[in-house]
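In this supplementary section we document a worked example of the pipeline. Step one takes a protein sequence of length 154 as its only input; no multiple sequence alignment statistics are reported here. Step two produces a three-dimensional model, which step three serialises into structure tokens for compact storage. The input and output of this example are shown verbatim.
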Amino acid sequence: MNWARLALRFGEPLLPLGRRVPFAVQKLVLEKALARIFARPLQDGAFDLLEGRWLRLEISNLGLAWCLTRTPGGLRLARRAPVDVCIRGNWREFLLLASRQEDPDTLFFRRRLVIEGDTDLGLAVKNLLDSLDPEELPPQLWRAMQELGAALRQ
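The serialised model returned by step three reads:
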């Protein structure tokens, strides 16, 4: 059994504990990670469509949710905000989406991921994420995401 299968097998029961992490810690970690991971797309204006608008990401089966917007300082998270659009799904679908193991349109068409609210903004965000070049991610992160996604598909 490879490391990705082991990580999924033993890590999955621990995932719901993420909701016990104080929001301030989640915010700090996620904002720093997003700034690093999306440094070039942020610099190129790819996330400007979220300026003054709020996206809520909900991982339903883990009880986790974050509201995300674009500010002059970068991507910012809030626990609650007047959201324009919400994208909801289970952690597995988000991992399949991020690792490019599943086509985003398929996930949305089969209602494994759901967009509610301003669907034009939701589709623009989906298309933005789909257009990002995974080769610009830190190589170890991209490799790990691919291996975890592939193990999940099996």
